[in-house]
Amino acid sequence: MCGVVGYIGKSYCRDYIIQGLSRLEYRGYDSSGIACIEPKDKKLVFLKSEGRLQNLIEKFNDFPINGFAGIGHTRWSTHGIVSQQNAHPQFDCQKTISIVHNGIIENHNDLRLKLESAGHIFNSTTDTEVIAHFLEDLLVLHKALMPALISLIKCLEGAYAFACLLQDFSDQIIVVRKRSPLCIGVGQDEMFIASDLLAFSGRTNKVLFLPDESFAIITKDLIQLFDFNGNALPIDIKEVITDSTLSQMGAYESYMLKEIYEQKSVINKCVTSFKASNIWDNLGVTPEFIKNLDTINLIACGTSWHAAKIAQFFFEKICLIPTRVFLASEFRYMPFFPETKSLYLAISQSGETADTLEALALVKSMGCASAVITNVASSSMVRQADGFLLTHAGPEIAVASTKSFTAQLTALYWLCNKMALEKSIITQKEMIASEEDLRLAAEILENCIENYKIKIITDLAIKYASYKHFIFLGRHISYPFALEAALKLKEISYIFSQCYAAGELKHGPIALIDSQTPVILFSCFDSVIYQKLVSNAQEVKSRNGHLIVFAFEGQTELIKLADTVFVIPQINPLLAPIAMTGLMQFFVYQIAKVLGRPIDRPRNLAKSVTVE
Ligand code: AGP
Questions:
Q1: pTM here?
Q2: Are 215 and 76 in the same domain?
Q3: Which residues contact 135 (CB under 8 A, 6 or more apart)?
Q4: Which of ligand 1's atoms lies nearest the C-alpha of 303?
Q5: Residue nearest atom 8 of ligand 1, based on CA coordinates
Q6: What does the pLDDT look like over 72-107, one tens digit per residue?
Q7: What is the CATH number for 295?
Q8: With 76 labelled, which of 102, 185, 510, 564 sits at a CA distance of 20 to 30 A?
Q9: Domain match, 403 and 256 both
Q10: Is 110 within a domain?
Q11: How many CA atoms lie within 13 A of 76 on its CB side?
Q12: Is residue 204 located within the same domain as residue 261?
C-alpha cells in the first residue's frame, strides 16, 4: 500500500509533497517522510516521523527543509514495525540515494543477505532499503545511471512502484513501476509524481500513467520512459478531469459521517447517469453477448465483496442467471475454467485493490469478457478491463466504505435490471419501476437515520459502546448485509464482531449467546425468510440473549422479541439492504464515536489495499 509522491520543477516541493501525502493518507498513515535536494549545496536532506502526517509537518518548524526536487511517502507497514527507522525514504550507506516505495520486494531477504555480506549496513527492517543499497553497488559497478537502473530492476521481484532521488543526479527523479500504480502529472516546467492522481488534482490535468513494467527518468520539463530492457517507450499523456474540491469535510465532524449522509444523492446521481449511459458499449460487450449470457462471475474484496454477495440475489432473482461470487484473493489461486458465455465483473471502489486487479488480469489472460464496477475512472482496473461502469459516489475519503457500498449496490441492481430488459425478462415499464424503487430506497435510507438519530446519539450508542463482543445475524439477502455491518463495527470501533447466517446459529455459535453479547439481527422483507428469522430470534431470547433488531414495518412478532428495535418502512425486498444501510452505518458510527476512535483513519487499516 503506501502513498508515493514526488516533485521536480520551478517551485519549492514541500507544499505539494505535504498536500499530496495528505490526500494519499488513505493508502496508509502509520508514518511519513520526505527527502529533497537542498538548493544551496545540492545535498540530499530528509525528515521522517512516526504516526500521522501532522507529526511530520510539526517537525518542519525545527527542520525547515525544502528544495526544487523532492519525494515523499506515507506508509502502511508491511515489512517491519511502525517506527521512524522503518519510515520512508530509505537510504543507501552514504545517504545519497533515497527511495520511497509502495508494494513488496519479494526477494528482499536474499538481496539483503548478499548486500550485508558485501559490507552494507542496514538501518531498517524494510524491504525498501535493499533497493537503495543495491543501487549504490550497481552505480559503482556500471559507473552510469541507466545500466545500473536496468540491472537493479531486473533483479527486483514482486509488485512495486518506487521513486528515487539521488544526490549525484539532483535534477532528476527516477520512478519505476511493476504492477503497483504510479503516474506523473505534467505541468509547466514542473512534474508531479504520485501513486494516485488525486495527489496533484487541481495542479495539472495532464497525466502519464506509467505502463506496467516501465521506468522513467524525469526532469522538470522532460520525461524519458523505458521498458525494463531500457528500450524507449512512447509518452502517452492523457487529459483527465480532476476535482480539487474533493477533500472538503464541510460542516461535518468527520468524512465518514459526511459520506453516510451523501448516500441519498449518490444513489440518485447514479440512477440518472446510468440511464443516460450507453451501457453495453461502456462495459465492452454487445447486446447479443448479454442476451446469450449463461453465468455471471463477480470478483471483489471486503465491502465490495459484500455488495457482490448481495447482488447475487439480484442477478439470480431478476435476471435468472446463475451467479458466483469470489473473493479476489481466493479466485486467483483456484482452478480456473474459462467460460465464454460469462461476464467476469470485478467490483472495487478504488479500482486499485491488488488482489482484484490480479484476478482481472487472470480473467483477461484467459480471453474471458471482463468489466469493472468502480468509483475511480482513472484507476488501473478501468485500464485493465474490457469495460467499466462508474459508480459516481465521488471521492470516498474515510477508510470505512459507506457511500461506495450503496453506489455499488445501486449499480449492480440497475445493471441487473438492464440485463433482464435486454433478455426480455422484464418490460421497459418494469425497468423504469426499478429505477423508481432505487430512488425510494435512497429516500428511506436517509429518513431512517433522521428518525433514530436522537435516540442513537443520546441513548443507544452510549449503552452499546460498553459491550465487548457482538454477534451479527442475517439470512438470505440480509446475511451478506450482516457481514458488512459486522465489518463496519469492527473496523471503526475495534469491538469484536462475529457474523453468522442465522440458520447456522444452532450448529455451534449458539454457545456464545449470553446477556453480555448483544445479537444484532437484520430482518428480510420476505414472508418465508421472515418466519425463519423469528425462530432464530426466539432461540436467542430463550437463552437470555440481548437482541437488537432491524425489522420492517408490520413484522410485529420480531419487533416484540427485540430489546432494541429499528423499524424500517416496507420496500422491494431486494432493496432492503440499501434502505437499511444508512441507519446501520450511523448506529455503528456513533458507538465508535462514544469510544473516541479515530473514525476516518482506524488503526492498522488503509483505504486502498494495493499489496496482495
Ligand atoms: C471496508 O470498509 C473497506 N474499505 C474494505 O473492505 C474495502 O472494501 C476493500 O479493501 C476493497 O476495496 P476496493 O473496493 O477499493 O477494491
A1: 0.83
A2: yes
A3: 92, 97, 99, 148, 149, 152, 164
A4: 8
A5: 303
A6: 999 987 788 889 999 999 999 999 999 999 988 999
A7: 3.40.50.10490
A8: 185
A9: yes
A10: yes
A11: 25
A12: no
